[in-house]
Every structure is written in structure tokens, then in C-alpha cells.
Please model this.
Amino acid sequence: MGALLALSSAVCYGIVDFFGGLLSRRVHYSVVTLVGQVGGLLLAVAAAFALPADAVRSADVLWGALSGVGSGAAMHYLNRGMSRGAMTVVVPVSAVTGVALSVLCGVLLLSDRPTPLAWVGIGVTLPALWLVSGGGGGAREGRAAADGLLASLGVALQYIGLAQADATSGLWPVAAGRVAAVLVLLPSAARHLGAFRQPPKHLAQAALIGAGAALGLIFYLSAAHQQMLAIAVVLASLYPAIPVILALAVLRERITRLQTTGLTAAAAATILLTLG
Model:
């Protein structure tokens, strides 16, 4: 059941990233990110009330808030990257690096002990990122990959922080995370106030995208309470498959042979981390 919940999280995030990337090309990414987090907050609070918690501890709320800081940063850089670069570059970079960072943090902070296969997967990550970013060529690919790397730091913080919340706190850590994400994103939004003059349709779409991301976090939190952190993180991080496939099929994005090799290496790294 835990694996199914983690994969459900991956599906939610994959769909959210694709449509969030599309909307960020029509609307300023700060609008998509902030309004999305507000939408996620509304869904998370409603879900938390619908599924009452046994005991909400302050420590669990703080872990959720820390996770939300990561979420806000991740979505900010992810949407910025997709607004000016290819989804097939930004999303895989953020995911595979986030997995590797989560494993390393587990080793350094949580006393996890990855197998040799997992260490090989971590080692494959760096050359995979270089290839996905265009093999060092192309300023646009480089900027997109840089945003993906910055997003990956938030992804790792999001997954690690939320997994520390106890199951007795229910979904309130997710709700606390949405509050923290909104607060983190306010300074960036304040610099682009004019961009928020949008048709109600676009604002509603952004809120719906954010609600989908919150649903993905709810699935992930449930998965993390039922199995090891490393497995939950890796399975939830399979989400890039959806936006990459949709970008190739729907948007007709093209990738070079080097990037194809990098994507293959990134997939291999994820599999190795899973087996590890």
C-alpha cells in the first residue's frame, strides 16, 4: 500500500508539473507559484479537518513548516525554469538530484546505510545532469538546468522534512507547510505585483495546480509513514516521466542525443537508488 501511495504522489506531481509549466509560459511564474500554494493551503486545511488527528504536536507542525519552505523554493525555481526552458531538462534535473540529496541527508542525519547499488546511483547522477543540461552547451539549457538544481534542494528539504512528522499529527504538517510556502514566496511576489492582474481563469488554474501538488504531498506523507524514507522518496520522485512524455508528445519538444543519454542515465540512477 505504501508503494502505491508513493506512486500516486508521483502521478499527482507529474501532472501538476506539466500544467504548471504550461501556465508559467503564459502567466508570470511567481503568480503560478504563489496562487498555487494558496490553493494547496485550502485543500490541505480542508483535508486536515476531514481526517482528524490523534494529537498535533508542535514538533510535527514545525517539520511540516520546514518542508513547506522546501516546497515553496522548489516550485518557484521549477516554474521559473520551465517558463524559460524545456520541461525535458528542468524536471528530470530537479528530481534525480533531489533523490540523491535525500539519500545523502539520510546517511548524514538519519543514520541510513545505502547499499553499494545506491552509491553507484548517486555517482551516476552528476554526469547524467551534465548530459541532460546539454553537455555544457547552450545558455538556455544551462539556465534551465541551474533552475532545476536549485529546485532539487527544495525537493530534498520537502521530502525529508515532511517524513519526520509523526502520523498522529494527521495532515496538519501538510497544512503548516502550505502556510510556510506562502510566506516564503511573498517577497518574490511583491516584486512582481503587476503580474497578478490576471483573468480569473488563470488564477483559478494556478490554484487548481497547487491543490494537485498538495494532494501529491498528502499521498507522499501517507507513504512515508508506511515504509522507509528512501523508498518513499524514490518512488514519489518518478514523477518526471509524465511531464517529459507529455512534453515530447504534446509540445513536440526535441532533445539531443546527449540529452537522451543523460535522461537514460538519470532513469538508471533512479532505478539503482530504488534497488539500493
About this structure: The chain has eleven helices and no strands. Residues 62 and 173 are 8 Å apart (CA to CA). Residues 58-84 form the longest helix (27 residues). The radius of gyration is 18 Å.
